[in-house]
């Protein structure tokens, strides 16, 4: 069995208190229950907005420089994720489709090494 990241992407100005209504919360809860019942969910977590991130970079002198904000400037960032253990990419993509529908957001599916 392989492990896959199923990442939900949100725009930078995403506010879950505004964007996520009861119907969406119910759909996400149902998806989590389905994943647990299928025995595929290894980990799930939501992330704070990208603006609250800290980025660390090693300078040529070996010191680590810390800056406010995400590592990459982008219009969307990962807002939450699942780690699933499934038999194939096709199975991971099937869960990714369900995640995109439940979260009403773009989803990225990527296998771990």
Secondary-structure blueprint of this entry?
Layout: E1 2-11, H1 16-19, H2 22-38, E2 41-46, E3 54-58, E4 64-68, E5 76-86, H3 89-103, E6 107-111
Antiparallel strand pairs: 1-5, 1-6, 2-5, 3-4
Helix pairs in contact: 2-3
Strand order within the widest sheet? 2-5-1-6
**Model regions low in confidence, pLDDT < 50 over at least 5 residues:** none
Helix content: 25-40%
Q: What is the ordering of alpha helices and beta strands? A: EHHEEEEHE
User: Whole-number radius of gyration?
Assistant: 16 Å
Care to count the β-strands? 6
Quickly give the CATH architecture: 2-Layer Sandwich
Count of runs of 4 or more consecutive helical residues:
3
Number of discrete domains = 1
CATH superfamily: Dimeric alpha+beta barrel
Distance between the termini: 12 Å
Query: Which CATH top level class fits?
Result: Alpha Beta
What does this structure look like?
The structure is a single chain. With 113 residues, the chain is α+β, with helices and mostly antiparallel strands. It contains 3 helices and 6 strands, in the order βααββββαβ. The strands form 2 sheets. It has a 4-stranded antiparallel β-sheet with strand order 2-5-1-6, with helices on one face.
In short:
The protein has helices at residues 16-19, 22-38, 89-103, and strands spanning 2-11, 41-46, 54-58, 64-68, 76-86, 107-111. With 113 residues, it is an alpha+beta fold.
Name some characteristics of this structure.
6 strands, Alpha-Beta Plaits, alpha+beta, 37% strand, 113 residues, 4-stranded antiparallel sheet, two-stranded antiparallel ribbon
């Amino acid at each position: 069995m392989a492990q896959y990241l199923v990442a939900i992407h949100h725009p930078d100005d995403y506010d879950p208190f505004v964007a996520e209504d009861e119907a969406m919360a119910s759909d996400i809860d149902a998806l989590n229950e389905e994943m647990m019942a299928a025995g595929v969910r290894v980990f799930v977590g939501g992330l704070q907005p990208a603006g609250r991130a800290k980025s660390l970079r090693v300078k040529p002198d070996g010191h680590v420089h810390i800056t406010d904000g995400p590592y990459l400037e982008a219009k969307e960032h990962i807002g939450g994720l699942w780690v699933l253990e499934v038999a194939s990419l096709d199975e991971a993509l099937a869960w990714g489709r369900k995640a995109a529908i439940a979260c009403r957001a773009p989803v990225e599916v990527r296998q771990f090494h």
